[in-house]
Amino acid sequence: MTARHTDRYRSNRVPFWSLLDDAARLALRRIGDLETFAAKDNLLQENDLTDHLLVVRRGCVKVTALSADGYQAVLAIRNAGDLLGEQAGLDGGPRSATLTALTTVEALVMPASAFRDAARHHSAIAAAMQQVLSARLRDADSQRTSTGGEAIQARLAALLLELGERYGRRGDSGALLIALPLSQDDIAGLVLGSRRTVSRILEQWRGNGWVTTGRNRLVVENPDALKRECGEGP
User: Which residues form the HTH crp-type domain (predicted)?
Assistant: First the structure.
């Protein structure tokens, strides 16, 4: 897979928690509480006026937001080590997105005021925050660029390959079962396409024997074919 197609989905960024030193981690553990969320639970709700921040310690989270016309866009998938809720937690505004657990999630939940105080006393926290925010701005720029310049087939192929790499379970035949409960609406949101278009492409790929789909189930049967679709391979 070429970087041009996969930068939007591939998580090359170092997670927030991994950027911290031991003293900073201890400080955050002291101000936070570990909470567990079942799959499909909301960790945060768009437009709420809460001000806490979270660090995912285990599990996978979907980030979504509603557009003015009611379309739910899937903005990102976050994983262990990622910082969540930092925007509203730091500026006091309403939540800009809903965070939903895709799997069982364990998260460190921290009051914003205590987090800001810890950041003042531990430069590693402030530096990690800056790096995370900068990386997310770069990701947003990359997303806009790829959406304007790539065919949706290439974006979809890159996404499925990345999901297979990060969350897939490989079978004896080499197929990758993507073990995340993502609907076709979710997948369409991640590639900024319509559900109708994504369904049509997946139907074609099913006919080619490249993928198998079911209710919240997707198997990449032929990863090499998808690599060719997004520009890698002969």
Answer: 150-224
